[in-house]
């Protein structure tokens, strides 16, 4: 393959565009160029984390620029005469970043030994963890096995056991936690301890951790979810964020919860789908009204420059998700009118700013033109004609 372009997505990931050689291309007989988009872990360069084949138009110059559009959530390829957009949701970038971070963690593992002898034999912590997980899966109602699992998890640094469990083992562990927590004899305080140990150890992949967070929300264990929200390296799905919005909608004071949600990245398409399924029309209206207040009154700290922008974006997402339903809710029309007026005001402001920007550009052109010209005032002399 012939290397063409490279794009830095964040501190952990990069994207590359390469041209497949004719013998590698599945469509070489048609003479249509085939490009390969690959996502790479910067610290593990042996194998691409994801790849996608792209067909470039016949006879067109290959792309010369590559960039990422945050609004559309696409990778943009530009040639002299051709442009291509390749979908890449932010949630996918966050998911791959989390995998990269877990795999390349440099934190030191806690070492355990079998005896206090002169030359003690070091035990395999990962092996002990696997045995503990197998034990609780086989007997999910036996508290002693759970205590042993918690001890194994606490002996590991965060991320040290990433990849130790298969996907099936992870899903079985989540189901075992649910079964143990549902038992009448189980103390919920100990369940919280188990959940916290599992979350801190990072032994679950994105999908299984997502299911565990959904369970925490269902059971009202929001402290554990907030612990994930505050960790910028952890990925939180739109499904979890939508459920957190639902909880916030039921509170009299929503702002603190909404600000935590706005601190996370989310895909517009996925967020629209999830909020449409999770939120009622009334809940959506209440959240939009609070987001308007946040947008109007929020003073941006230096470390949260995008909060107001995200608040406005979330309003438009909720409008897309519930706009058609609001028409049939007569009692909500007055509140919806407030939201509509706010959006109209924002559109008017955007038009005003565009006019100012255009006028400023014209003014600059006038200034440049006047600097290149010299204006002189002359006085004409009148002469009488002799006939």
TrEMBL record:
InterPro entries on file: DUF7951
Pfam family, one: DUF7951
Name of the protein: Uncharacterized protein
Species per Swiss-Prot/TrEMBL record: Caenorhabditis angaria
């Amino acid at each position: 393959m012939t290397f063409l372009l490279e794009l830095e997505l964040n501190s952990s990931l990069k994207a590359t565009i390469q041209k497949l050689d004719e013998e590698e291309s599945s469509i070489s007989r048609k003479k249509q160029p085939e490009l390969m988009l690959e996502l790479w872990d910067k610290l593990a360069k042996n194998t691409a984390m994801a790849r996608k084949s792209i067909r470039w138009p016949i006879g067109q110059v290959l792309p010369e620029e590559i960039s990422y559009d945050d609004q559309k959530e696409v990778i943009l390829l530009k040639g002299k005469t051709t442009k291509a957009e390749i979908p890449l949701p932010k949630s996918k970038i966050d998911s791959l970043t989390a995998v990269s971070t877990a795999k390349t963690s440099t934190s030191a593992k806690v070492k355990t030994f079998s005896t206090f002898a002169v030359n003690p034999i070091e035990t395999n912590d990962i092996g002990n963890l696997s045995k503990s997980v197998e034990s609780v899966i086989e007997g999910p109602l036996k508290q002693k096995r759970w205590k042993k699992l918690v001890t194994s998890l606490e002996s590991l640094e965060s991320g040290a056991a990433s990849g130790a469990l298969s996907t099936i083992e992870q899903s079985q562990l989540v189901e075992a936690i649910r079964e143990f927590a549902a038992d009448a004899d189980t103390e919920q305080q100990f369940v919280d301890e188990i959940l916290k140990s599992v979350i801190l150890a990072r032994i679950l992949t994105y999908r299984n951790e997502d299911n565990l967070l959904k369970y925490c929300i269902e059971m009202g264990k929001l402290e554990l979810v907030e612990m994930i929200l505050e960790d910028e390296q952890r990925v939180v799905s739109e499904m979890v964020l939508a459920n957190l919005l639902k909880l916030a909608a039921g509170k009299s004071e929503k702002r603190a919860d909404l600000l935590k949600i706005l601190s996370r990245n989310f895909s517009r398409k996925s967020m629209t789908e999830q909020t449409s399924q999770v939120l009622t029309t009334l809940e959506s209206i209440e959240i939009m009204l609070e987001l308007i207040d946040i947008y109007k009154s929020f003073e941006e700290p230096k470390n949260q420059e995008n909060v107001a922008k995200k608040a406005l974006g979330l309003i438009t997402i909720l409008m897309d998700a519930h706009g058609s339903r609001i028409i049939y809710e007569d009692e909500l029309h007055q509140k919806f009118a407030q939201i509509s007026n706010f959006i109209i005001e924002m559109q008017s402001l955007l038009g005003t700013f565009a006019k100012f920007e255009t006028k400023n550009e014209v003014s600059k052109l006038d200034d440049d033109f006047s600097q290149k010209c010299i204006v002189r005032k002359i006085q004409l002399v009148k002469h009488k004609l002799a006939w």
